[in-house]
Design brief:
The chain has 2 helices and no strands. By secondary structure, the chain is an all-alpha fold. The protein has one domain.
């Protein structure tokens, strides 16, 4: 009842370059955070623009009603 060579190889194999995997995870996390910040800032600008458009519409309606 010996171990098969495939099983022994699977048990003794070193993890694939864990240092570069750690760097890749950090880079992915950084880029994801950066994307989130950029999208958040862009969303603020869009919401601000919508607010300005609504204010402008309100002023135009007020002028139209008051004559």
């Amino acid at each position: 009842m010996g171990c098969s060579p495939k099983l022994v190889l699977a048990e003794t194999r070193e993890p694939y370059n864990t240092a570069s995997e750690g760097k890749m995870k950090k880079k992915t996390l950084f880029l994801s955070a950066l994307l989130l910040v950029v999208l958040s800032l862009e969303g603020c600008a869009t919401i601000r623009g919508i607010g300005e458009d609504i204010q402008s519409l309100g002023r135009a309606l007020k002028r139209a009603v008051s004559g």
